[in-house]
TrEMBL record:
Pfam families assigned: Sec20
Record InterPro entries: Sec20_C
Keywords for the protein's UniProt record, in alphabetical order: Membrane, Transmembrane, Transmembrane helix, Transport
Subcellular location: Membrane
Residue intervals of the Sec20 C-terminal domain: 3-41
Protein origin, superkingdom: Eukaryota
Keyword Zinc included in the entry's annotation: no
Protein's recorded name: Sec20 C-terminal domain-containing protein
Membrane topology of this protein: Single-pass type IV membrane protein
TM regions (residue ranges): 20-37
Length: 153
């Protein structure tokens, strides 16, 4: 008898807990539905009803706000000018040193052609089919075909 009494009280507690969870879930669901309806009906309706209020100037655009915005813009301009001048100064000091180091590492041209001709590997003078040949200014490319012009048809 005692065991069955404990089982009945445990079932009653779980029944109340289940009812409480169901009621809480239902209340949350209804709140979400009401929020969606408010967004779609009430807010849009108010936006349509008060469309003309967009043309009324706001009081926040006073002369003090304009002056603050101008001060922020002038501060930004002065900081950008300082950064640009420092970059130009650093670049003007580094360019000559980099140029001298590059030119010192380049080999001087030799007047002896025989030494250069020993290093050159002879290449075939025939171009492969549909080879692309670039001009010296790389602005025009020509296609060289060794076969007849209508081979691909």
């Amino acid at each position: 008898m005692v065991t069955s009494k404990h089982l009945i009280t445990a079932l009653e507690k779980s029944d109340w807990l289940d009812r409480l969870l169901i009621i809480a879930a239902l209340a949350f669901f209804l709140l979400v539905v009401l929020f969606i309806l408010k967004q779609r009906i009430v807010d849009r309706g108010l936006k349509v009803a008060f469309w003309w209020t967009r043309f009324i100037p706001s009081r926040s655009s006073s002369a003090a706000n304009v002056a603050d915005a101008m001060e922020k813009g002038s501060a930004l301009t002065s900081s950008a000018t300082a950064v640009i001048s420092s970059v130009v100064t650093v670049a003007s000091t580094l360019i000559p040193s980099v140029a001298t180091s590059i030119t010192s590492e380049l080999p001087l041209p030799t007047a002896d052609i025989s030494a250069v001709s020993k290093q050159v590997v002879p290449l075939s003078l025939e171009a492969p089919d549909n080879a692309v040949i670039w001009t010296t200014d790389s602005s025009f490319a020509a296609t060289v075909s060794t076969g007849s012009p209508h081979d691909e048809l």
